[in-house]
Design goal:
The protein is an alpha+beta fold and 169 residues long. The chain is built from five helices and four strands, in the order H-E-E-H-H-E-E-H-H. It has a four-stranded antiparallel beta sheet with strand order 1-2-3-4. Helix 1 crosses helix 3 (91-114), helix 2 (64-86) runs antiparallel to helix 3 and helix 3 packs antiparallel against helix 4 (135-153).
Length: 169
């Protein structure tokens, strides 16, 4: 029971801190930036954009009903991720899911007031413009990358036939 409470506390703390940092950077971006691009670091400029969809503006909403529906889907996915994080098989999986949760919660909280997510980091290279994102997107991407690493480092369970053959031998 103590381990479960510690995991719950860690997930809630990590999610809260990640979402708060994301919200803080979005607030600063909205205060200081405009849509024009300002050089920041190589390959990244600062540029204020509002995304009414999900990744790469997919499923962009056009009205309040669609925004509420998208927010509901996000909330359901957050709940599923939270349950998955509580049931994580290892520490890396739990950390990865907490990062994804932090990003998802940060973006949902940003979407609630007006149906849009604030993006401000514009990725570009070699004269090509790619996409604009925020720290919540970084948390989500890092969490997914960690989930892949965790999946690749786990031993492959034996196939049923191999397991039965080994047992019968």
């Amino acid at each position: 029971m103590r381990e479960w409470r510690a995991r719950l506390a860690a997930i809630l703390a990590g999610t809260g801190i990640g979402a708060a940092v994301d919200s803080g950077t979005k607030s600063v971006a909205e205060t200081l930036l405009d849509p024009s691009r300002t050089p920041f670091i190589p390959f990244v400029d600062l540029s204020l954009v509002y995304n009414r969809g999900v990744s790469f503006s997919l499923f962009a909403t056009r009205n309040t009903t669609e925004a509420v529906l998208l927010g509901g889907v996000q909330a359901a996915l957050i709940l599923a991720l939270f349950v998955w994080a509580l049931r994580a098989r290892g520490g890396l999986e739990a950390v990865a899911l907490t990062a994804v949760l932090a990003g998802a919660v940060g973006n949902l909280l940003d979407r609630i007031p007006d149906g849009a997510v604030t993006d401000f980091l514009h990725l570009h290279a070699l004269g090509r413009s790619f996409f604009t994102f925020n720290l919540a997107d970084v948390w989500i991407s890092a969490g997914v990358a960690l989930l892949l690493v965790d999946a690749l480092r786990r031993p492959t369970p034996p196939k049923t036939e191999d397991h039965l053959a080994a047992r019968d031998a």
